[in-house]
Amino acid sequence: MQILIPDLLVQYGGVVPKMAEEAHAQVIDRVVEQAIQNAKLKPSDLTAVAVTIGPGLSLCLRIGVRKARTIAGKYSLPMVGVHHMEAHALVARLTEKELDFPFLTLLVSGGHNLLILAQNVGQYIQLGTTIDDAIGEAYDKIAKWLGLDMRKGGGPALEELAQEGDQDSIMLSVPMQKYKDCNFSYAGLKTQVRRVIEFNNINAISVPIISASCEDRKLRANIAASFQRVAVLHLEHKCERAVEWAQKMEPSIKTLVLSGGVASNKYVRMQLDKIAKKHNLKLVCPPPNLCTDNGLSIFFSHDL
After folding, report:
1. Cα end-to-end span (Å), the chain
2. What DSSP state is assigned to residue 47?
3. pLDDT of 211-232, one tens digit each?
4. Burial class (CB in 10 A: 0-12, 13-18, 19+), 291
């Protein structure tokens, strides 16, 4: 039986590593073949094979590396391992031709939050990282608890519902306000939201959002909006501090790059644009199709 990834997200409310590995294994041959056909190439036309080597789910990464080795061995090609987050950091240069080093990058995804000062290709200073859960994981988990349609992804589903809610309706604490660093934490915020959901007796399993009453839907929308406001405010606080640090280290810095899957979120972009403008920086975001994990960013990082 073929396993479809959207079906897995709906069934499990997120990524289950072993099931994800099986899904990757089932489709990788077809995906690679289709990519080569779409490029109007033959395998013999290739000059190298670039492959993601981490960070990420090791079980899934292994499928890609195994396939890359097979292709590289069959056609006597060099194989180049690419760091997943470096690819996200640099892909903005693919569409923003005038983006010069140095620049500050905020990477926001399902598994990682990183603030990086990019001084050149391969030369990075990490200013902040995730100490527990990343913002994308928090979006996905809360979307599941609210009974949202996970087929479109938890993040997009929650962002859409939040537009119906009042972001000031539920009081939630911004994480790590006492810490004067650039690190991120979303585990505590997730716990706060879970308690609100439990207190209001929201049962996402028996009553998904599609079956919720108008009153119930409004409550869930208020929770989504309130969570999003605080989650992004955490990004703003840490990013603003990182901008101040980066400008001291590299006074010529002119750009803040926002990348990773969560960078597709319009609310995130809007709020981070305010931070950039406050500090006389230009916010650069890759188009949404290059924010999520994609082969083009891996190729581009190798090609640099």
Report:
1. 40
2. -
3. 999 999 999 999 999 999 999 9
4. buried
Compute the half-sphere exposure of residue 253: CA atoms within 13 Å on the CB side of its CA: 27
Q: Per-residue pLDDT tens for 160-187?
A: 999 999 999 999 999 999 999 999 999 9
Peptide bond into 208 cis (omega under 30): no
Could you count the other beta carbons within 10 Å of the beta carbon of residue 50? 20
**Which residue is listed with tokens 């996402």?**
204
Q: Encoding tokens for residue 176?
A: 């790590």
The CA distance from 271 to 235, in Å, is 9
CA angle 15, 155, 256 (to 5 degrees): 115
Spell out the residues 6+ positions from residue 178 whose beta carbon is closer than 8 angstroms to its own: none
Q: How far apart are CA 129 and CA 136, in angstroms?
A: 14
DSSP 8-state assignment for residue 142: H
3-class secondary-structure state, position 2: coil
What is the rounded distance in angstroms from the CA atom of residue 50 to the CA atom of residue 300? 9
Q: 188 near 251, Cβ under 8 Å?
A: no
SS3 121: coil
Single pTM value for the model = 0.83
Residue 291 and residue 141 in contact, taking contact as beta carbons nearer than 8 Å:
no
Does 55 sit behind a cis peptide bond, omega within 30 degrees of 0 on the bond before it? yes
Tally of residues, the chain: 304
DSSP result, 163-184:
TTS-TTSS--PPTTTT--SS-B
Q: What is the distance between the alpha carbons of residues 297 and 291, in angstroms, rounded to a whole number?
A: 9
